[in-house]
Design brief:
single chain; alpha+beta; lipopolysaccharide transport protein A fold; 2 helices; 14 strands; 45% strand
Length: 203
């Protein structure tokens, strides 16, 4: 029994020395055969032209929000906006969405390809394919529109066409505004050669 204990003690003593040495040898081998790091294999970062950003500053996905004098909530969002040059207040923008929520619960949504926000004049001028959708069931398109920032006023002086609750509608101009004699009530008006192709309900 004593001989077995001596053998066991000797083996444990040798293993205490051999195992750490073996581990050290394995680690050394890993470092020696490790592949040299190639900087070209690093994760690529987005290349940003800093000089261009300084020369032409821009905002990504900006949002402008406010309340008009008549109490309507107005929100304007865009994919990208660039401030006007030459000290002029305002900005140009791409992929615009304007939301107008009037106090009487009505809503109008305007979508345009591009626009110009003129804060000095208090207007937003949009073009590039303009679509206006209202909560009363109208969806019309036009070439350009002007929206006031201080009051409820969406005006198109170019041809408009689209769908109405009663059918297909075309006109030379349109306007969404507060009724002058009835504060708190809002009206969509079509002007200049209005034509409505009536579609009976259910047809």
């Amino acid at each position: 029994m004593s001989q077995h204990d001596n053998f066991h003690s000797t083996a444990v003593a040798w293993l205490k020395v051999a195992l750490p040495l073996l581990a050290l040898a394995i680690l050394s081998t890993l470092f020696l055969v490790a592949r040299t790091v190639d900087p070209a294999d690093a994760i690529p970062f987005a290349e940003v032209d800093i000089a261009e950003r300084v020369r032409e500053p821009r905002l990504t996905q900006p949002t402008w929000a406010g309340v008009t004098d008549d109490g309507a909530a107005l929100t304007i969002a865009a994919d990208e906006a660039r401030p006007q040059q030459g000290g002029t207040a305002g900005a140009s923008a791409n992929a615009l969405v304007l939301d107008l929520l009037t106090p009487d619960g009505g809503r109008a949504k305007l979508v345009a390809g591009r626009g110009m926000l003129d804060t000095d004049q208090g207007v937003l001028l949009v073009d590039g394919g303009v679509t206006v959708t209202t909560s009363t069931g109208y969806e019309v398109t036009t070439d350009a529109m002007r929206a006031a920032l201080d009051r409820t006023s969406l005006i198109s002086e170019t041809n408009v066409s689209g769908t109405a609750p009663a059918g297909q509608i075309t006109a030379g101009a349109m306007e969404i505004s507060q009724q002058p004699d009835t504060p708190g009530q809002y009206l969509l008006v079509f002007k200049d050669g209005v034509r409505l192709l009536y579609t009976p309900s259910g047809k």
